[in-house]
Amino acid sequence: MDFQLLPSSFDNNGCASARQHLTSFVIDDRVAVDAGSLGFAVNDIQRSRIRDVVLTHAHLDHIAGLPIFIDDLFSTLEEPVRIHAIKEVIDVLERDVFNWSIYPRFSELSNTHGPVIEYRVIKPGIDVRVAHLNFRPLKVSHKVPSTGFVISNDATAIALSGDTAEMDEFWQQINEIKNLAALMVECAFPNELEQLATASCHMSPTRLARELEKFDGGGCPVYVINLKPMYRERTIADIEALSIDRLHILNVGKIYTF
Ligand SMILES: [Zn+2]
């Protein structure tokens, strides 16, 4: 399974920056998880192949690129872009984004081949097939209704927390996965911004370390995602100070094969 965190900004040389301002992952150039930079950062192959977008939640840094992605494809789509999310997230998209004020209500529009988007409601704990992958949505603890996922194919499985604070159910569920190849878990703020992390339902390195005590996972590597760009260096320093061998920072743009 190829897994990539798409870039979302540029460095001073005009190259993809290591900073993660927006969140979108692409799996096997075919399925997107979150759509923060989806419309801006996909390559041509990804744009031509991605027809399934699975959302963790509706915060802007996770959906900002979705309207542009659909708009770019509008006239050429031969099948709809399927948006998989819990009902609360779909309701927000329809009420606050695809409402004709912010952007067209694509659910009412068709091209010559038919509808251009299709909503698929997912529910925590209920497995769904998305393209060639199996997704198990898992409840996490963020400021708004959100899900993490266990994503698997016939050979392997990975887990992704999405944005979250402390969790219980997520850990219980992923501890039962036997072939887990990687865990992606968020850590938005450095320890000195503990209060902000608490108020916004995100992790700090200290809290992440406590959470990882709930994770069995054997030698499964853990990759940290969602480091807020403004505090990236300080957060990484705090994470390195934890001295947890299997804990890594997920590199923006790099294709990981699990
Ligand atoms: Zn969020």
Task: Describe the overall structure.
β14 (222-225), α9 (232-241) and β15 form a beta-alpha-beta unit. The model has no long low-confidence stretch (mean pLDDT 97). The protein is globular. The protein has a 7-stranded mixed sheet. Strands 9-10-11-12-13-14-15 form a 7-stranded mixed sheet. It starts with a strand and ends with a strand. The protein is built from 9 helices and 16 strands. The protein is of the alpha/beta class and 258 residues long. Zinc ion (ZN) binds next to loops.
Named CATH topology: Metallo-beta-lactamase, Chain A
- Strands in their spatial order, largest beta sheet: 8-5-4-3-2-1-16
**Strand and helix order:** EEEHHEHHEHEEEEEEEHEHHEHEE
- List the total number of helices: 9
- How many beta-strand elements? 16
The CATH architecture name reads: 4-Layer Sandwich
Overall mean pLDDT stands at: 97
Report the portion of residues in β strands.
Answer: 15-25%
Unreliable stretches, pLDDT < 50, 5 or more residues?
none
Shape: globular
Radius of gyration: 18 Å
CATH superfamily: Ribonuclease Z/Hydroxyacylglutathione hydrolase-like
Can you summarize the main beta sheet? Answer: 7 strands, mixed
Number of individual domains: 1
- SS-based structural class? alpha/beta
